[in-house]
């Protein structure tokens, strides 16, 4: 009998396993002193600059850009945009109030809570290294679709775990046999998604962060696949644009080309979709 780690395919927020996962994660983030990301400045200016042409195109049409950043933490993006003189109305969302004062000092509006609680329309919705921490990816993307204005842009920067032979960080703590079997399960899901031409978003409800000292992305519960993300946006008529960060070394080239997802998706009108 082959025993595999229990992964969840296309989970919903009301799934009891997801509810239990979120409870455990919130307890971890609220109580641990070993998690370094709570107070760090989220400086991704090398990636943010790739979005400048999109911001400029929106400004040329609308005069001002309504931006929503998801999982903002202690982001530098509103500072980056204002320093470059872009006319923006900047909103930031985060699930925890830990960085609320920081966000209020740099943003026009701050939402603390789940994305489903946000209302309004935005020209650009961006997240940087957040999507891998989302426990219900499909509902998260549907909320983004709801909040995006026609011709609005969804900008996504995150790791991807679909390169052949690459073991996602959140399952690296498993015993070698169980880890191998679980990787095979992931691989079979990837193959099935392509054959059936249907996204197969996988979530790990029992990540490594609960069992060992924290290491990078040990809490990355969503095992991001570029095919899943691309297919979901294609099915809804989005235009897709790859964002290519400059590579200063071969290692950086491999990281940006195969281990991270850097893309922009433009929402089409219903008439253009038809």
What topology does this entry show?
Layout: E1 8-9, H1 16-31, H2 45-48, H3 52-62, E2 65-69, H4 77-83, E3 88-94, H5 100-106, E4 109-112, E5 122-128, H6 137-147, E6 148-159, H7 176-196, E7 202-203, H8 226-235, E8 239-242, H9 250-259, E9 260-266, H10 270-273
Parallel strand pairs: 2-3, 2-5, 3-4, 5-6
Antiparallel strand pairs: 1-7, 6-9, 8-9
Helix content: 25-40%
Classified by CATH, the class is Alpha Beta
Number of domains: 1
Computed CA radius of gyration, to the nearest angstrom? 19 Å
Query: Which homologous superfamily in CATH is the superfamily?
Result: Vaccinia Virus protein VP39
What is the succession of H and E elements? Answer: EHHHEHEHEEHEHEHEHEH
> How would you describe the shape?
globular
Structural class: alpha/beta
| Terminus-to-terminus distance | 49 Å
CATH fold topology: Rossmann fold
What is the β-strand count? 9
Largest sheet properties: 7 strands, mixed
The total of helices stands at 10
Biggest sheet strand order reads 4-3-2-5-6-9-8
Tell me which CATH architecture applies here: 3-Layer(aba) Sandwich
Arithmetic mean pLDDT: 91
Unreliable runs: none
Strand content: 15-25%
């Amino acid at each position: 009998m082959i025993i595999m780690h229990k992964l969840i395919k296309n989970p919903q927020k009301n799934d009891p396993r997801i509810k239990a996962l979120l409870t455990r994660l919130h307890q971890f983030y609220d109580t641990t002193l070993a998690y370094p990301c709570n107070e760090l400045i989220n400086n991704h200016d090398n990636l943010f600059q790739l979005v400048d042409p999109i911001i400029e195109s929106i400004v040329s049409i609308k005069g001002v850009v309504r931006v929503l950043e998801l999982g903002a933490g202690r982001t530098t993006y509103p500072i980056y945009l204002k320093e470059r003189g872009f006319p923006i109305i900047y909103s930031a969302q985060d699930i925890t109030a830990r960085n609320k004062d920081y966000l209020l000092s740099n943003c026009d509006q701050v939402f603390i809570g789940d994305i489903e609680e946000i209302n309004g329309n935005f020209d650009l919705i961006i997240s940087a290294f957040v999507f891998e921490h989302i426990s219900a990816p499909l509902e998260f993307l549907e909320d983004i679709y709801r909040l995006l204005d026609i011709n609005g842009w969804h900008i996504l920067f995150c790791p991807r775990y679909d390169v052949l032979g690459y073991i996602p960080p959140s399952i690296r703590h498993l015993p070698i046999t169980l880890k191998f079997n679980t990787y095979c399960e992931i691989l079979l899901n990837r193959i099935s998604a392509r054959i059936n031409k249907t996204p197969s978003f996988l979530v790990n409800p029992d990540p490594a962060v609960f069992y060992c000292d924290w290491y990078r992305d040990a809490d990355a519960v969503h095992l991001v696949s570029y095919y899943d993300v691309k297919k979901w946006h294609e099915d809804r008529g989005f235009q897709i644009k790859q964002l290519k960060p400059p590579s200063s070394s071969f290692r950086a080239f491999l990281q940006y080309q195969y281990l991270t997802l850097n893309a922009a998706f433009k929402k089409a009108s219903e008439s253009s979709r038809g």
